[in-house]
Predict the 3D structure of the following.
Amino acid sequence: MELKIGTNIILESISSETTEKFRCKIVEQKNNVIYIDYPVNTATNKTAFLFEGGQYRASFVDEAKVAHAFKTQVLGRVKSNIPMIMLSFPTDEEIIKIQRREFVRVETPVDVAIEFDHQFYQFVTEDISAGGIAIIVNQSVSFKENDEIQLTIVLPFSNSNDGIKYVQTSARVVRFIEKDNRVIVPLQFTNTDDVDRQNIIRFCFERQLKIRKKETTF
């Protein structure tokens, strides 16, 4: 399998006691070796230095939006125009397709900023999932069905350690729905990286627990 230059990869440590995750990009590929830029720790946003021999689980999403995973090992470093790290790359038979379950949709208000055709809008969601959101449209807009728009989603976690996460992604306008004298517009994410997707999944899970807790108190 040939990976496209610039493909985002998430590395998850499997050779240390603590599970750390790093994000990086493919810079070059030669046969069974891929070259990545220096990875960034997803928790600290600091550049990480991977030790030679370290083993990781790598995952990426191809151009067809299919997720894949494989085991890899750090082979060394390369000094070129940009510093790179060499990782082993397996045969096609050793690359696993990740079967994604249907994303859980949670009804909760979240602030969303939208950019389309150099115009900016602010909305609140009707619901959210790792696959997309539905926004409540209370003003005239220039985008229409099947248009691709840019989103900035604000995720206010209850856990003080998480704070507020900002997810920037693109989305396709699915349709306009009139519901209870309101206009609801479902949006399907089209370019969400694994880190942002995991943040959305964690946020949805947190909100689910919060909703269930409220229901059990009545």
